[in-house]
Design goal:
single chain; 190 residues; alpha/beta; 5 helices; 36% helix; binds ligand FNR
Length: 190
């Protein structure tokens, strides 16, 4: 497969938690600090989006219009999510549903993506991570298979300034980012 030269790739980061002290948000911020100059990341808010109702397609909420337009500006996607009851939180699924319609304008279509799941629990939010992968088949996000990143024990990874200090997780995220850059280069559709 041909590889595109990589520079100034705009990355939309969607965080599946709205909580102020969210571990997922802390991992998103740590990841942004670890990114090379090739990636330009931006956390895109999703909490403002009305719950998906197909009737609204006839009279679009401004928040939906803005969100759909915003996602189209990005080259690639990065999802960082907790697990709610062994799946992704509703707020994240809602954002994906809002972006996916109308079908001919599915904003996710063909944008390379990757997933990190984070939980204070022990199972690394595997269920959320894999339900997201299943949804990405439907919205056509080519999703990076490896390295899989399931981060458990999230309570113990940060210092009192919310800095990620766990060396093994920092190393894992560095590996993840190297793979993610090459995943984008291989899968980007110009
Ligand atoms: C949870 N939590 C949770 N954790 C997990 O590992 N597996 C799960 O299935 C669930 N289910 C679940 C359901 C609901 C409704 C809530 C509110 C929480 C715990 C969850 O991982 C924890 O609250 C995290 O702190 C959420 O992520 P943020 O907000 O810290 O990013």
């Amino acid at each position: 497969m041909e590889t595109e030269p990589m520079e100034n790739m705009k990355i939309a980061i969607l965080v599946g938690s709205l909580r102020k002290e969210s571990y997922n948000l802390k991992i998103a911020n740590a990841l942004i600090k670890l990114m090379s100059g090739k990636l330009i990341p931006e956390i895109v808010p999703i909490g403002q989006l009305q719950l998906y109702n197909q009737d609204f397609e006839d009279n679009l909420p401004t928040e939906w219009i803005d969100f759909r337009k915003k996602i189209k500006e990005f080259d690639a996607l990065l999802f960082i999510t907790p697990e709610y009851n062994r799946s992704m939180p509703a707020v994240l699924k809602n954002a994906i549903d809002v972006g996916s319609r109308p079908l001919a304008n599915n904003v996710w279509n063909e944008k390379p993506g990757a997933i990190i799941s984070v939980t204070p629990g022990r199972l690394g939010a595997f269920g959320a991570n894999h339900h997201l992968r299943q949804t990405f088949m439907a919205v056509n996000i080519p999703t990076m298979p490896q390295p899989e990143v399931y981060i458990g024990g999230a309570k113990n990874l940060f210092d009192s300034n919310n800095e990620l200090v766990d060396k093994s997780i920092i190393e894992l995220l560095e590996k993840f980012l190297a793979a993610y850059e090459s995943w984008i280069a291989k899968n980007i559709v110009k």
